[in-house]
Amino acid sequence: MILNDLLVDIEVLRLEGNPEIKLNGIEFDSRKVAPGYLFVATTGTVTDGHDYIDAAIEKGATAIVCELMPVKLHKNVTYAQVPDSAKALGYMASTWFGHPSEKLILVGVTGTNGKTTIATLLYQLFKEIGYKAGLLSTVCNYVDDKAIEATHTTPDALTLNTLLRQMVDAGCQYAFMEVSSHAIEQRRIAGLNFEGGIFTNLTRDHMDYHLTFENYLKAKKTFFDQLPKESFALVNIDDKNGLVMVQNSKARKFTYSLKGMADFKTKILEHGFDGMLLDMNDKEVSVSFIGKFNAANLTAVFGTAVLLGVDEMEALRIISMLKAVSGRFETVSSPSGFTAIVDYAHTPDALNNVISTINQILQGNGRLITVVGCGGNRDKGKRPLMAREAVDGSWKAIFTSDNPRNEDPQSILDDMIEGLDATQKSKHLSIINRREAIKTACALAQSGDVVLIAGKGHEEYQLIQGVKHHFSDKEEVTIAINNLTNH
């Protein structure tokens, strides 16, 4: 492709060299540059691509897109100075791959909790109807039936457009993607054409990155600000930020709620550990999901399906068949009569949702034992909040390692315990080893109890001192249950 064709949607402040130069590829990681490539110097959170321009040229880059022109220009290299390299990368990646998002019906889901569940269930619903569809999510990416491992909630602009192109080539008509606040802020979704956007909720998360709640809110809101007027915005009005999200949006606005009047409204009629009976827009449907938050997620799925033209009864028929997403309120029953639940809840609000849901369903003398930790090298402010949610809602809380990363696991637990008063402290145990913590919780559980293992959900690893170790909460709790049964 010719550089000039790539720059068609981009404001160029200054151009040096030949704009008609032919390019063999685009890259923003200088280590991956090959001869005849365009290197885009983006400012990352850790490194600045401008520091690697010379390295990229040494590897054969013949064109550079940057925000700051280098002092020394190479005579056989073309330079284009732009106001925002990351945004330019998004648009150029889209052009390079033939604007794949315009050839699909692409829907983005953003918010603190529920993104994975909603995006995955929409993917499953449309597949069930008979469409080919794609999914971009925290757990796994799918190009129709082909699974591709996910490394980020929302991939970088080049990976995103590569995957969307693969979806188009595989004949997919729909694509559903999680849109993280990092991705919005870092312009990873620049140049994509969204048919619709869904807002779930907003609670404290990623403070290590955004620093303030206002910045976090603003990042999420930007997604809706940029939706075109032909698209739809579906927002949860049970969250006070729901209507804030669409204040400046040109998109067609729709609402969903469990509490008040909305375009898509759900009431929980009955619930147990095997599912719920819901009233959705005055029609009854049985689902194999548990909890208010899942009722809200399913309402978003229902609303989106209807907005995309699916018949209401058909949407409800398929919703009644859908199953829980990996690591999202997944239940494992024990022969001795207690239930284990594995859930990804890793924010105070998500933990509160899961715990209150379990407590609403617990029968008779049933008790809740919660195993929970906090990630290392991340927002320290949420540690005491997570600890309080766990002890206040549980008969016993066991604090343990999550992904300690490069932090001392004990100091993470100390931060959690610091938020507790004497009464709360008496309800907790600290067991650094996560395997032992899960075993202990199962050993304490009696018939009718629930063991909640929170924080890691679908993840199959633990990050300890920079090393990735295989670890699955679901595997560990299954082993612990089997060992108890065999003794």
Question: Which key features would you list for this structure?
Answer:
487 residues; alpha/beta; Udp-n-acetylmuramoylalanyl-d-glutamate--2,6- Diaminopimelate Ligase, Chain: A, domain 1; UDP-N-acetylmuramoyl-L-alanine:D-glutamate ligase; Protein-Tyrosine Phosphatase, Chain A; 3 domains; eleven-stranded mixed sheet; 17 helices
Protein described:
The structure is a single chain. The protein has 487 residues and is α/β, with parallel strands linked by helices. The chain folds into three domains: 3-95, MurE/MurF, N-terminal domain (Udp-n-acetylmuramoylalanyl-d-glutamate--2,6- Diaminopimelate Ligase, Chain: A, domain 1), CATH 3.40.1390.10; 99-319, UDP-N-acetylmuramoyl-L-alanine:D-glutamate ligase; 330-486, Protein-Tyrosine Phosphatase, Chain A (Alpha-Beta Complex). It contains 17 helices and 24 strands. Strands 9-8-7-10-6-11-12-13-14-15-16 form an eleven-stranded mixed sheet, sandwiched between helices. It has a six-stranded mixed sheet with strand order 17-18-22-19-20-21, sandwiched between helices. α3 packs parallel to α5 and α10 (292-307) runs antiparallel to α11. The protein is globular, with a radius of gyration of 24 Å. The model has no long low-confidence stretch (mean pLDDT 93).
